[in-house]
Amino acid sequence: MIPEILKGLCDNAAIFPPGLMPLDEAIPAHSDHERAPYSALVGPFIIGADAMPRLGSLIASRDTALPLAATAPKGPGQIPAILRKATALPVALKAIEVVAPGPVDEFLIDLSTVLADSNVDVFVEIPRDERREPMLEALRATPYRAKFRTGGVKPEMHPDSQEFAEAIIATVRAGVAFKATAGLHHAIRNTAHDTGFEQHGFLNVLLAVDTALRGGSVRQVAADLEQRDGSVVATRIANLDAHRAAAVRATFVSFGTCSIIEPLEDLIALGLVPASALTQGTSA
User: Fold this and answer.
1) Helices of type H across the chain
2) CA-to-CA distance for 220 and 208, rounded, in angstroms?
3) Which end of the chain is more exposed for a tag (fewer CB within 10 A), N or C?
4) CA-closest candidate to residue 205, choices 159, 174, 243, 143
């Protein structure tokens, strides 16, 4: 029901802005997503390090461990507590997403120290300053992945197509996988009706990665990011062969979204997912 290129693409960031769903509502809603026909689309539940202590009573009745990704917005110093709490809870810690608060070399030393005995996937949020290129180059020699912030509550938090294209190409050249967070509210590039912000489409990002993997220029990758014709984007996605689709997803791992249903509805409207995927779970 869910095409291979879309499986596990949507990490559940329901408790983060702009959704801000209360944790005691978000956990049951995630369980609904896991039982729904579209469950293959859904990745782990994302939670901030400081909120992890509140999980215990909310997941005690689960039959299976909660797939979890934890964020460390204050840097590597939060990771030991994340790891300790994860071992004490019925969760399957899939990933840690960490911010780099200082110089690249210092950050990576701190990160490797706190992760010495862990094999969890780690996504390093790439700074949008002069540290971007050095950070990506440094990640080349590590097992860590990248995380790009693609939007937010202020216009300056949305990288334009030129900046994002350059970042995607740099990531591909470094051989580093990445995820995205914030701003990818819809499948296709759009202008938000309520804020006027220009928003990247998550399917546009898939196409941009495919172009970058095939040696495309910044102009070509940016053009993919700027394509607003949903039929064009959907057709190109559907026509990717299995090898190219797998290569794209090996690079663009997932994105965090406050809503699982909105991306799903877009995919159904574009004909990439059958409408029967929404026959259950639409109240989640």
Assistant:
1) 23-35, 56-59, 79-88, 104-114, 132-139, 161-174, 202-213, 218-226, 230-238, 242-251, 261-269
2) 8
3) N
4) 159
The count of C-alpha atoms lying within 13 angstroms of the C-alpha of 51, restricted to the half-sphere facing its C-beta, is: 19
- Compute the distance between CA of residue 31 and CA of residue 12 in angstroms, rounded to an integer: 11
Q: From CA 140, how far away is CA 68, in angstroms rounded? A: 25
pTM above 0.90, yes or no: yes
Angle at which helix 202-213 crosses helix 218-226, to 10 degrees, equals 160
**Measured distance CA(225)–CA(122) in Å, rounded:** 26
Tens of pLDDT, residue by residue over 44-60, are 999 999 999 999 999 99
First-residue to last-residue Cα distance in the chain: 19
The number of residues making up the chain comes to: 284
Q: How far apart are CA 206 and CA 106, in angstroms?
A: 32
Distances (CA, A) of 15 to 12, 22, 46, 203, 250: 8, 6, 8, 23, 27
2-47: pLDDT as tens digits: 999 999 999 999 999 989 999 999 999 999 999 999 999 999 999 9
> In whole angstroms, what is the distance from residue 225 CA to residue 161 CA?
6
C-beta separation of 247 from 214 below 8 A: no
Q: How far is CA 257 from CA 78, 80, 202, 234, 276, in A?
A: 23, 26, 10, 20, 22
Q: What whole-number distance in Å separates Cα of residue 232 and Cα of residue 263?
A: 17
**59: helix, strand or coil:** helix
